[in-house]
Specification:
alpha/beta, TIM Barrel, eight-stranded parallel β-sheet, 10 helices, 8 strands, 40% helix, 17% strand, globular
C-alpha cells in the first residue's frame, strides 16, 4: 500500500476526471492521498474533495508565491480554515525565491503566520522551498516549528539541508524528480535519508515521473517514485511502501481507511 503525500486534486487537470483519477490510484496500489491547498479562493474546493472521499485528506494554506487573492491570510483566518477534521496539515507554505523578484519580505511574514497557525492547531507543516533553504530553515527554527514538525515537500536540496530539516523534526518527501536521469545529486540524498523519515509524493498534476515524463501527473504514478527509491537503495518496493505509508499516518495523525 502506498500514499501520495502531496497532490492537487482540485486542479483542473485532475478535477475533470476525479473519480477516474482515484480509481487509477487504487488500481496502482495507492490507497490514500493528501490534497494540498494553494490559495484562499480555491480552499473550499480542496476541502470538498477531502470531505467527499474518506481516503483523501487536505491541508489549509496559501502557496509562498501566490498573490492572486490580493491580500494576506490572517492568523485567525488560517486557524478557522483548518478546524475541519479533514484538514490535517498547514501549507503548502515556505519560501520561493526562484519565482518571485524584488522584495520578498511578504513571503517571510506569510511563512511565519503559517507556522504560528500550525503551532496553535498542533498540526504539521507542508513546506515548499526553492532557492531559499537557508532562510526557510532559519525561520522554522525561529518560529519553533519543531513543536509540530512536518514535511519538506518535493525535496530537491542537498544532504546538508535534509539533515538540518530532519533535526528540526521534519520528514523528507521525494517526488517524480528523483526518477529523472539528471537528478544525480538528489538520488544520492534519497539513498541516505532514513526510511523512517521519508515520504513519497507526485505533486500532481506536475512533475510526472519516468516513464510518464512530459504527461500530466496523477497520484497513481507515485508508485514509480517508490520504485526508484527502492532501486537506489537495493531494497524491495514493499519495504519503501510500508515505511512511507506508516510515516504518513504517524505524521498526519490519521488512520487508514478501507
Amino acid at each position: 500500500m502506498l500514499v501520495d503525500s502531496h497532490c492537487h486534486l482540485d486542479f483542473p487537470q485532475l478535477q475533470a476526471d476525479l473519480e477516474g483519477v482515484l480509481a487509477r490510484m487504487r488500481d496502482h496500489g495507492v490507497h490514500h492521498a493528501l490534497t494540498i491547498s494553494t490559495t484562499l479562493a480555491t480552499f473550499p474546493a480542496v476541502l470538498a474533495v477531502a470531505q467527499g472521499h474518506p481516503n483523501v485528506w487536505c491541508s489549509a494554506g496559501v502557496h509562498p508565491d501566490e498573490r492572486a487573492d490580493g491580500r494576506e491570510v490572517a492568523l485567525d483566518e488560517l486557524v478557522r480554515m483548518a478546524q475541519d477534521e479533514r484538514v490535517v496539515a498547514i501549507g503548502e507554505t515556505g519560501l520561493d525565491y526562484f519565482r518571485v523578484e524584488g522584495d520578498t519580505g511578504w513571503q517571510r511574514e506569510r511563512f511565519r503566520v503559517h507556522i504560528r497557525a500550525a503551532r496553535a492547531l498542533g498540526k504539521p507543516l507542508v513546506i515548499h522551498t526553492r532557492e531559499a533553504a537557508a532562510d526557510t530553515l532559519r525561520i522554522l527554527e525561529e518560529e519553533g516549528a519543531r513543536a509540530v514538525g512536518g514535511v519538506m515537500h518535493c525535496f530537491t536540496e542537498t544532504w546538508d539541508v535534509a539533515q538540518a530539516a530532519m533535526e528540526l523534526g521534519f520528514h523528507i518527501s521525494f517526488s517524480g524528480i528523483v526518477t529523472f536521469k539528471n537528478a544525480k545529486d538528489l538520488k544520492e540524498v534519497a539513498k541516505r535519508v532514513p526510511l523512517e523519515r521519508m515520504l513519497v509524493e507526485t505533486d500532481s498534476p506536475y512533475l510526472a515521473p519516468v516513464p510518464h515524463r512530459g504527461e500530466s501527473n496523477q497520484p497513481a504514478y507515485v508508485r514509480h517514485v517508490a520504485e526508484e527509491i527502492a532501486r537506489l537503495r537495493g531494497i524491495p518496493l514493499e519495504e519503501v511502501a510500508r515505511a512511507t505509508t506508516a510515516n504518513f499516518f504517524r505524521l498526519f495523525r490519521v488512520a487508514p481507511q478501507a
